[in-house]
């Protein structure tokens, strides 16, 4: 057999040892890379919690760390959802907090007194290292160790996953992706070996995943789907039965221990697939058992009809129970994945979240770079081999691609399978082109040439198929000869991988590493300026208001106010009570006279609005105003009408063309109160909406401006106390301003007789 | 698992078939597996009784019912898994799992299951 280049003269045992040593070094380097590339935000800014949701997780973790687990478990938070309060223990997934609580206590027990904030900030990078490792283990089951290493480095730095796991993003996804991959790995192990041990472990990690993230439903449906497809393909084996049954029996019971999940695994439609496949497997197993005892044809038909009829009956039973309402139908959040227009029509609060929009093609490329092209090749290679575990990757790829296409946020679950499939593809390519063996004997008959080529490569390589195709012409000179072709392909792949690293680093540092609490901007000379209005305002609230002053704001800022300002809020990011949110929306969308009594009834002392008009911060409350109107009009269609806020030509305007409803709404007045004073007369300009504001700004009767931050981003208003003389605020203000009633209009005022 | 008489009505051929199946089962199954099968039947009966109680009388402490029923179902499938792992006919399929290993797996699975059962009884 001829060789393209001589293999290095090393003994096979030495090669083996060196390889395993290199693997360890590579894995630790990958973990280091994964952690290091998530630290941009901490190094550039500071070690704080980003975004909105993590602030609640952080607050809950602080309770856990300071008061212990039982206090946390039974924590009733009277400051959230002000009049109502929130049972925290029963409305969260406690896995994230429990994890950092355990780490915190462990570090303290070995006398490393780390602050809980730093544990929370660094949790996501630490777990991304574990994700890389578990992806390695998973891919190792699919192909071999070298593909595993490739997959590990790909997931370690892929921006699709980094976006949810930078340092400071203390969200459920931080640990969930590790748990997802590790549960899948254990499931594949359980399936391959038919071992109840791995099935039990998979159930335990499934339990951890259920405790950590609402996306556990993905696992609950992926594993049954895999099992079902295997049964339909005629690949049922006792190993499948052992793996699936042990996973389902233990995992379902375990998942019900999480208070937030409760009885859902037996009462909701999301979990019925798992139950159905469980029942089906029992049937199939029983059939197989009977078949092993008898071999008569008659029996097989008898049993087959029994299995099919019982299966159909089972499906009917589930359908009927859903119709009858014994099994809860799909919740809106999941249902909107299938019927993509559903959320917009019926639940505006789901549609209002920017992460719930469909994904555009550029964001696929930005998040996955070249992997998005190689991904289908990897899936194709899985089809070529098609062992039981490859079916899993194929299903996962199809399902996750669909979901990622429907919702930006689900790009996160797509990223692991893209990395795995791409790693399989790249590693197959490298296996083929780094293999020194050349196709044998050019003069040999075509059949043998083809056969030897396919033997020399691992698996049916492209060269082999080409050789076979060209087989008719004897002395086929196709195949991999010489070192130059090999080098060309290998170097090209290597080059692409390098570009991938560059792209990932660039995307991470530019797009995903900015804490939304602090806004970074650049001045003209290139030095960076930090806009810190949020914390300025929140700390003003913290230090200058009474401890029990209720703050009203739009729900986006609820968690941050509770976390940083430490004050009760009306609504927050946990949008469990739509009517309460609609109340806030109504208060913002109506005039002062309507809103003031409404706020009084809710004991509100301060109202907080965001305004980006001065420094072009586009995520301000006026841009979210339409959603407030929509959510409010869903509950009070008579009092809040969306059409009233548009000009006759259907435009949403804040300038002179603004409608009366718009310019009298509380949100408009609060945003632009005294705003025109910043500009020369008549030149007030809104830099976000690019419109010229009216020369005379709005006046406020029932509210006092309490605080406005440096760049006018956060504005806080205080509710005026009731007038001492019992007048309404409008006439009291008019009197104070010295406005007389017009002459000759001495009122015949009419009051009802008491 | 012993063949339970199926409810599907079939002509005389099937009664004949069932008796021959029963005979084949008696002849071919080792004593160890028969012991496991007896346990499986017991678990099945226990589960059925609980279910009937739940349907006829009350499902009021629903978590207690679920815990008891899931303990039966879970123990049933774990035992059935053990049965198929130690079944000499399946030796081809379970190359990595020796009968002793299968028993240890079974013990571990049952312990974990019952830990959750007791936690869930409430």
Largest contact between chains:
A-B, 41 and 47 residues
**Which percent range describes the beta-strand content of chain B?**
under 5%
Low-confidence stretches of chain A: 444-474
The N- to C-terminal Cα distance of chain B equals 32 Å
The mean pLDDT of chain B is 86
SS-based structural class of chain B? mainly alpha
Helical proportion of chain A, percent range: 55-70%
Count of helical regions of chain B: 4
Low-confidence stretches of chain B: 1-11
The global form of chain A is globular
List keywords for this structure.
heterodimer, A: 754 residues, mainly alpha, Rossmann fold, four-stranded mixed β-sheet, two-stranded antiparallel ribbon, 34 helices, 5% strand, B: 122 residues, transmembrane helix (chain B), transmembrane (chain B)
Task: Please provide a written account of the structure.
- The complex is a heterodimer of chains A (754) and B (122).
- Chain A has 754 residues and is mostly helical.
- Among the domains of chain A are: 187-330, no CATH class; 532-720, 3-Layer(aba) Sandwich (Rossmann fold), CATH 3.40.50.12610.
- Chain A contains 34 helices and 10 strands.
- In chain A, the strands form 4 sheets. Chain A has a 4-stranded mixed β-sheet with strand order 5-6-10-9, sandwiched between helices.
- In chain A, strand 7 and strand 8 form a beta hairpin.
- The termini of chain A are far apart.
- Chain B is mainly alpha-helical.
- Chain B has a domain at 53-121.
- Helices cover 75% and strands 0% of the residues of chain B.
- Chain B contains 4 helices and no strands.
- Mean pLDDT of chain B is 86; it is low at 1-11.
- Classes of the chains: A mainly alpha (754), B mainly alpha (122).
């Amino acid at each position: 057999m001829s060789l393209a280049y001589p293999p290095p003269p090393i003994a096979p045992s030495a090669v083996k040892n060196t390889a395993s040593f290199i693997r360890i070094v590579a894995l630790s380097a990958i973990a280091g890379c994964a952690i290091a590339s998530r630290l941009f935000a901490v190094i550039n800014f500071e070690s704080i919690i980003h975004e909105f949701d993590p602030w609640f997780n952080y607050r809950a973790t602080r309770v856990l760390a300071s008061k212990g687990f039982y206090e946390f478990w039974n924590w009733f938070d009277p400051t959230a959802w002000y009049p109502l309060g929130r049972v925290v223990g029963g409305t969260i997934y406690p896995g994230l907090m429990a994890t950092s609580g355990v780490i915190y206590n462990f570090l303290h027990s070995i006398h490393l007194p780390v602050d809980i904030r730093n544990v929370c900030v660094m949790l996501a990078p630490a777990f991304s290292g574990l994700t890389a490792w578990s992806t390695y283990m998973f891919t190792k089951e699919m192909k071999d160790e070298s593909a595993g290493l490739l997959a590990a480095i790909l997931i370690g730095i892929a921006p699709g996953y980094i976006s949810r796991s930078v340092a400071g993003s203390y969200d459920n996804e931080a640990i969930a992706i590790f748990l997802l991959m590790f549960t899948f790995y254990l499931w594949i192990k359980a399936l391959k070996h038919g071992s109840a041990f791995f099935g039990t472990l998979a159930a335990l990690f499934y339990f951890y995943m259920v405790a950590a993230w609402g996306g556990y439903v993905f696992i609950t449906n992926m594993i049954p789907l895999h099992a079902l497809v295997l049964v339909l393909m005629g690949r049922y084996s006792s190993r499948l039965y052992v793996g699936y049954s042990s996973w389902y029996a233990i995992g379902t019971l375990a998942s019900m221990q999480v208070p937030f999940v409760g009885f859902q695994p037996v009462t909701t439609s999301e979990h019925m697939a798992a139950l159905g496949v469980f029942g089906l497997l029992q049937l199939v197993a029983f059939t197989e058992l009977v078949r092993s005892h008898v071999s008569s044809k008659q029996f097989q038909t008898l049993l087959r009809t029994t299995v099919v009829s019982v299966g159909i009956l089972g499906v009917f039973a589930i359908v009927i129970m859903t119709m009858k309402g014994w099994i809860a139908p799909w919740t809106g959040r999941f249902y909107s994945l299938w019927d993509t227009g559903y959320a917009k029509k019926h639940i505006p609060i789901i549609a209002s979240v920017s992460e719930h929009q469909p994904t555009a093609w550029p964001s696929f490329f930005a998040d996955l770079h070249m992997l998005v092209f190689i991904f289908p090749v990897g899936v194709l290679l899985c089809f070529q081999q098609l062992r039981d575990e490859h079916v899993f990757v194929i299903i996962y790829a199809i399902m996750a691609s669909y979901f990622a296409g429907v919702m930006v946020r689900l790009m996160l679950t797509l990223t692991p399978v893209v990395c795995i499939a791409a790693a399989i593809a790249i590693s197959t390519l490298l296996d083929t082109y780094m293999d020194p063996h050349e196709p044998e004997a050019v003069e040999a008959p075509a059949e043998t040439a083809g056969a030897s080529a396919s033997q020399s490569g691992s698996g049916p390589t492209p060269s082999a198929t080409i050789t076979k195709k060209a087989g008719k012409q004897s002395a086929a000179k196709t195949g991999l000869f010489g070192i130059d072709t090999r080098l060309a392909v290998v170097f090209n792949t290597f080059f692409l991988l390098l570009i991938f690293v560059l792209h990932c680093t660039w995307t991470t540092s530019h797009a995903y590493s900015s804490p939304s609490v602090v806004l970074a901007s650049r001045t003209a000379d290139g030095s960076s300026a930090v806009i810190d209005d949020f914390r300025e305002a929140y700390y003003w609230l913290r230090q200058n208001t009474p401890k029990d002053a209720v703050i009203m704001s739009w729900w986006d800022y609820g968690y941050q106010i509770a976390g940083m300002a430490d004050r009760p809020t009306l609504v927050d990011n946990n949008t469990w009570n739509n009517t309460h949110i609609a109340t806030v929306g109504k208060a913002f969308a109506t005039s002062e006279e309507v809103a003031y009594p409404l706020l009084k009834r809710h004991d509100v002392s301060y109202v907080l609005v965001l305004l980006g008009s001065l420094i072009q911060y586009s995520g301000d409350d006026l841009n979210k105003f339409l959603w407030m109107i929509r959510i409010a009009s869903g509950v009070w269609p008579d009092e809040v009408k969306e059409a009233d806020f548009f000009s006759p030509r259907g435009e949403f305007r804040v300038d002179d063309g603004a409608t009366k409803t718009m310019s009298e709404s509380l949100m408009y007045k609060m945003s632009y109160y005294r705003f025109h004073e910043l500009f020369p007369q008549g030149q007030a300009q809104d830099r976000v909406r690019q419109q010229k504001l009216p020369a005379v700004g709005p006046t406020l009767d029932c509210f006092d401006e309490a605080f406005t931050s440096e760049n006018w981003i956060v504005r806080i208003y205080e509710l005026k106390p009731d007038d001492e003389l019992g007048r309404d605020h409008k006439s009291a203000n008019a009197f104070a301003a010295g406005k007389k009633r017009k002459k000759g209009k001495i009122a015949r005022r009419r009051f009802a007789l008491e | 698992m012993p063949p339970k008489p199926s409810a599907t009505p079939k002509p005389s051929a099937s009664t004949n078939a069932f008796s021959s199946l029963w005979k084949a089962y008696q002849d071919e199954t080792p004593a160890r597996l028969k012991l496991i099968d007896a346990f499986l039947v017991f678990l099945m009966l226990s589960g059925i009784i609980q279910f009937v109680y739940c349907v006829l009388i009350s499902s009021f402490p629903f978590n207690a019912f679920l815990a008891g029923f899931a303990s039966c179902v879970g123990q049933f499938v774990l035992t059935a898994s053990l049965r198929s792992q130690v079944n000499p006919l399946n030796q081809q399929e379970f190359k990595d799992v020796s009968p002793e290993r299968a028993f240890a797996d079974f013990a571990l699975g049952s312990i974990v299951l019952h830990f959750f059962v007791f936690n869930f009884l409430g």
